[in-house]
Amino acid sequence: MGHATELGHVRGLGSAKSGSHHWMMQRVTAIANLVLMTWLVTSLVTSDFSSLDALKMWLSKPAAAVPLALLCVSVFTHIRLGLTVLVEDYCHGEAGKLAGLLAITFFTWGGMAFALFSIAALAFGGSANGGH
Amino acid sequence: MAAESQRPLSPHLQVYKWSPAMLVSILHRATGDGLAIVGALVFLWWLGAGASGAEAYAAFIDHAGAWYGQVVLIGLTWAFFQHGASGLRHLLLDTGAGYELNTNRTWAMVVAAAPVILTAAVWLFIYYKGL
Question: Which ipTM did the prediction report?
Answer without folding.
Answer: 0.88
